[in-house]
Design goal:
single chain, alpha+beta, YerB-like fold, 13-stranded mixed beta sheet, globular
Length: about 350
């Protein structure tokens, strides 16, 4: 559901426009003063007010005259193997994260805000890593279910968790697939239930700006290795990156303007999957090395995240990194693994 077609978005946009016109009228007369720049304070309340004022999507940094949606953001866990292909709805996500799960495989966490497709999936289970992914958004974490220990930690962290297992998420079944790779979500209908004129705008997830920090070397094709058997390959095409070995519905993959590769510490989630494999936990707090790939160039950087609720900060050469406004794909790669590397050319 593109937000531009819904009347509730038009109401918010109209109110914001009226407020701006009133402020301009009240400033008439006397000496002219320089226009105040929208604040980007780190506090959640200030960030929400700033995002509303400039009508910028907090996950892409792109300003929109159509206004922001009046529902929370939704982070949906999506299968990322052949068994769950094709992936539905990815092209309409605002931001996507790839994280390591058991068996050296990966899973996607797709954040939907500006658009809510009627078909998203195939929906899979949650991991404790998702706490640090969803907490900064103040939105919903959506999954088919999760291990008891993981769900307890997620709820204990104050995350608004919705799943089929917990009975507060309606999912349908894809007759062409076998369980557990057959769950689908009508996110459009789901979002309607959580629509409110008082919906808070999420704070900026990353730092975007009109003067993005440039890369230092060419990177039009590269691969990101998670394990001996899993690597995601990327190719630059028409200014956007494309997953060469992705699993999305044909012609409807998520094509980011920027790919962030963040090297992260891996822990033990404290339980095993049904096949007996230990379940890893990506520790997405603290700091580590990073690579920023955008426009065919790559920049070596460092990332940091003070706590689960904090935004992601990027620094290169001792200076803050600013990203080009647009869609971002985040790769949470295990650090300290000899088989993990970013190869660019």
């Amino acid at each position: 559901m593109p937000v531009s077609t819904h009347p509730r978005t038009a109401v918010r946009a109209t109110l914001v426009a009226a407020a701006l016109l009133l402020a301009a009228a009240c400033s008439g007369g006397g000496d002219e003063q320089p226009a105040a720049k929208p604040t980007t304070a780190a506090t959640p309340d200030a960030s929400r007010k700033a995002a509303t004022l400039v009508r910028a999507n907090p996950f892409t940094g792109i300003a929109s005259e159509k206004g922001l949606p009046d529902h929370p953001s939704f982070l949906v866990k999506i299968e990322n193997t052949d068994a769950g292909a094709p992936q539905y709805g990815l092209s309409r996500a605002d931001l996507v994260v790839e994280e390591l799960v058991e068996g050296g495989l990966t899973r996607l966490a797709a954040i939907f805000y500006s658009q809510t497709p009627s078909k998203v999936g195939h929906v899979r289970s949650t991991r404790t890593t998702d706490i640090a992914l969803v907490k900064p958004t103040g939105g919903h974490l959506i999954a088919s279910g999760g291990a008891g220990v993981a769900v307890r930690k997620i709820k204990g962290a104050g995350v608004d968790f919705h799943s089929e297992d917990t009975g507060n998420l309606p999912l349908t079944r894809d007759p062409a697939k076998n369980a557990p790779y057959d769950r689908l979500l009508d996110l459009d209908a789901y979002a309607e239930k959580y629509t409110s004129a008082k919906a808070a705008v999420p704070p900026p997830y990353l730092t975007f700006g009109p003067q993005p920090t440039p890369g230092t070397r060419k990177a039009t094709a590269f691969s990101v290795r998670f394990s001996a058997g899993t690597a995601t390959r990327w190719q630059l095409e028409s200014g956007h990156y494309r997953r060469v070995n992705g699993h999305a519905e044909k012609g409807k993959d998520f094509k980011p303007d920027t790919v962030l590769v963040l090297y992260t510490r891996q822990g033990d989630a404290g339980y095993r999957d049904p096949a007996g494999n230990p379940v890893p936990e990506t520790v997405f707090t603290g700091s580590g090395k990073a690579a920023v790939l955008s426009g065919g160039r790559m920049l070596d950087a460092r990332w940091s995240k003070k706590n689960a609720s904090a935004p992601i900060t990027l620094v290169a050469g001792g200076k803050p990194v600013t990203l080009k406004p647009g869609k971002v794909f985040i790769e949470l790669v295990p650090q300290g693994n000899g088989g993990v590397s970013v190869t660019a050319r």
